[in-house]
Amino acid sequence: MTWGIISTWQQSLAGTTKAAERLAAQGPSGDAVQIAIESAEADPAFNTAGYGGLPNAEGQVQLDASFMNGDTLSIGAIAAATDIAHPIAVARNLSHELLNNLLVGHGANEYARRHGFAMRTMLTPEMQNFWGKQVRKNATRHDVIESHDSIGVVSLDYRGRLHTGSSTSGIFMKAKGRVGDAPLPGAGFFCDNQTAGVVTTGLGEDLMKGLLPLRINQEIANGLTPQAACDKVVYPFVDELYHRSGHIGAVSVVALAKDGQWGAASNVDFSFVVATDQLEPTVFAAKRSTNNQTNIHKIEL
C-alpha cells in the first residue's frame, strides 16, 4: 500500500515534510495530519492559523479547526475558540468522543483546559500592530476578504487509512463569533477510506454554499480520478455562484484518494504541497485553464 499527504499552501512545506517522514516510517495518517498542522499553528509566518493568526474586528484571534477519521467517519471540530495553542489537537481529541463533537467559543476553551491541552495567547505584537493600523485606516471590504487562508491536510498511510484536518484564524477583522467552512463537515472537509479525503481553503462564506468535499468524494466514488472530480465539481460551482450573486471569493480544494492519486482545483493562484512514497515533498501551483480544467506545475524553490 502506498502512502501520501497533500496540504494547502506553500507555507505548509516544512510541516508536511515532517509528516511525510512519519508516514514513510509507517506511522498513522492521523499523526501525520496533526504533525503538519501543528507546525503551521506554531509558526507566526503562517499568519492565517494558530499563533500569529489574523485578529477579528475586536483584535482577538478566534480559531476554527477540524479533524476527520476516514475509517470510522468520526469528526471533531472547534470554532470561535481562543488561546488554544494547537486547535487541531483539540479537534482530534473531540473526534474520539461519542457526543459533543463540535464545540464553539467558551465551551471549546473549557474543554481544552479540562483535558490539559496547552493554552497560549495567540495574538502576537506584530499582528496586534497590524490590526491597529487597519483600524486606523478603516480597512475596506477588499482588505478583509483578501486576508484569509486555512491550512488543510489530507493524509493516507500504508494501511490505507485516510484522515483530514484543517486549522484557521479565518477572515481578518471578521465579526466576533464568525465561523467559516473549516470546521463544518461536508463544506470544509470530508474523508472516507472507501473513496478519498478532501479539504478546502478560501472564502468560507462561499465555500459553505457548495459542499465541495462531499460532492468531490461522490464523484470519485463514481469512478473519476481526484483531479477530474475536482475540476468537475469546482468550476461549475464558482461559475454558477458568480452568475447568481455577481461575486465570488477564493475557492480552492485538494483531494487525495485511497489509491494515492491526488488532485486540486482553484479559481485563484493557489499553491499546495504533495509528498508520496514516490514523490519527495514538492510544492505545486494550480490555476484554472480556459477549458475548465486545472493547470498544475511544480514550483522551483
From TrEMBL:
PANTHER family named in the record: L-ASPARAGINASE, N(4)-(BETA-N-ACETYLGLUCOSAMINYL)-L-ASPARAGINASE
Pfam families in the record: Asparaginase_2
One Gene Ontology MF term: hydrolase activity, acting on carbon-nitrogen (but not peptide) bonds, in linear amides
InterPro entries: Ntn_hydrolases_N, Peptidase_T2
Record's protein name: Asparaginase
Record field: transmembrane: none
Binding-site residues for substrate, renumbered to this chain: R178, V179, G180, D181, T201, G202, L203, G204
Source species, domain of life: Bacteria
GO cellular component: cytoplasm
